[in-house]
From TrEMBL:
GO terms for molecular function: isomerase activity. InterPro entries: IolE/XylAMocC-like, Xyl_isomerase-like_sf, Xyl_isomerase-like_TIM-brl. Pfam families: AP_endonuc_2. The keyword Isomerase applies. Residues 25-225 form the Xylose isomerase-like TIM barrel domain. This is Sugar phosphate isomerase/epimerase family protein. The keyword Membrane does not apply. Keywords: Isomerase. SUPFAM superfamilies: Xylose isomerase-like. It comes from Lederbergia graminis.
Length: 249
């Protein structure tokens, strides 16, 4: 099986980061993670200080998740942040209530993707289960994939949310050849609640997921767990150790 570099989406550690921002990041590196998705640092910490800490810990900044208003109105600030911190991708999440809203997003995504590409950066849409709503018999996510320019718009597929949306993650990922550089991996507990689980502790078939990830050119796999039943640092450690057992890292 292909070996992947493994990063973390620190939303999993959001409460710990509010209490001790750098301390939480240090624990991410201690577990063994090699990359991290980052946002603008909190007040009192400069981007230069964040970059210095990541370099000290051997953590690669991978991307920044942004809001829709920020994407529309403050793209220059986002570009400057990514360049300073050494990240490559801008990531957006959003849901859609109408077909027209999806088509508006297609236009925006292509425009933003073109501008980012001119700066050597990339644009990714990160899915939840929201995009598995259908308009005229077609998923909103399928519309985004089919209507956007493959060179300008790519995706950060989330395995849990694809499953929650009613599709098989590995099968769905096959639609995204060379368009899924970052893959969010999280597992799902069995049962009706479909609660989040550490990678390898739930029902998702990660052997198939990683096989397809290799086929479609995924660069990084990124652990995220939106909610944890136990200490969040134990959760990210369990996911990492299970990935080691799977032979992925």
């Amino acid at each position: 099986m292909k070996k992947f570099p493994v990063g973390l989406q620190p939303y999993t550690l959001r409460e710990a980061m509010e209490k001790d921002y750098f301390g939480a990041i240090e624990k991410v590196a201690e577990v063994g993670y090699k990359g991290i998705e980052v946002g603008m640092p909190p007040a009192g910490i400069t981007v230069a200080q964040l970059k210095a800490k990541l370099d000290e810990l051997g953590l690669q900044a991978l991307s920044a998740h942004v809001g829709l208003d920020q994407l529309k109105n403050d793209l220059g600030t986002i570009i400057n942040f990514l360049k300073e911190v050494g990240a490559k991708y801008v990531v957006l999440s959003q849901g859609f209530e109408t077909k027209e809203a999806v088509l508006e997003a297609v236009e925006l995504y292509n425009k933003v993707g073109k501008e980012l590409k001119e700066h050597g950066l990339g644009f990714l849409h990160h899915n939840h289960d929201w995009e598995f709503v259908k308009f005229d018999g077609k998923y909103a996510l399928d519309m985004l994939i089919e209507e956007t320019d493959p060179d300008l718009v790519k995706f950060e597929i989330d395995t849990y949310w694809v499953k929650k949306g009613g599709e098989d993650p590995a099968e769905y990922m096959k639609k995204l050849n060379n368009r899924c550089p970052l893959l969010h991996i999280k597992d799902m507990e069995p049962g009706e609640e479909q609660f989040f689980a550490e990678v390898g502790e739930g029902i998702l078939n990660f052997e198939e997921i990683f096989k397809v990830a290799e086929e479609i050119g995924t660069e990084w796999i990124i652990v995220e767990q939106d909610l944890c039943r136990r200490d969040e640092f134990e959760c990210i450690k369990t996911s990492y150790e299970n990935l080691e057992k799977m032979g992925v890292i």
